[in-house]
Amino acid sequence: MSWSAFAFLIAMNMVGALAPGPDIVLVTRYATRSRKHAVAAVTGTQVGVLFWCTLTVFGAAALLTAFPGLLRFIQGIGGCFLIWMGLQNVRTGLAQRKQPALNLDEAVSRLGSVKQVFRTGLFTNLSNPKIVLYLAAMIAPLLPPHPPLWLAAGLVLSMGISSYLVFVTVATVISTNAIRRRLLAAGPIIDIASGCFFAVAGVGLIIAAITG
């Protein structure tokens, strides 16, 4: 693999990280309240990305293609998780609409612990195994059929780090005090909207699992 091909893969990975999806919606939701929680969500999602990148580089796409039932099973479980999380967000948003406006400290206190947020980020990313097929389509044309270990490990780490930096940048920008304070009043709406997004995404995964 040439250095230009390697750089192209990293650039495409960073662009793909910004595509609308559960990960970016989750991080945005937390960033409107707390940078610490947003970074925890980022870390969780990117551990998932690192996991999928590792599986992709070492041939998991072929496994999922050969055994489509495995892909559908993981999609079904992931879809149920996203629906559950979406309903929780909607319920939280509706409850907050009936209460007085919160200050930042009160809003942060309702997000749960950083460990809980990390786990939510991790499970959100792991809920959709199709990322393996996306990564395989991007990597396969440029990666040698049997890449040496140093190249495989370097590619996995580079894609993981570059994606992490993109998400941390997004979380940092959104979680600045000026933006957070402006969005605080819209917190319930953000919760409801993100909850609906997760629920719809979960239903989509379940339908894909049933009809795939």
UniProtKB/TrEMBL annotation:
Any single Gene Ontology cellular-component annotation: plasma membrane
Spans through the membrane: 6-26, 38-64, 70-87, 122-143, 149-171, 183-210
Principal location listed in the UniProt entry: membrane
Single GO MF descriptor: amino acid transmembrane transporter activity
InterPro entries for the chain: LeuE-type
Location of the protein in the cell: Cell membrane
Pfam families noted in UniProt: LysE
Lineage: superkingdom: Bacteria
Record-given protein name: LysE family translocator
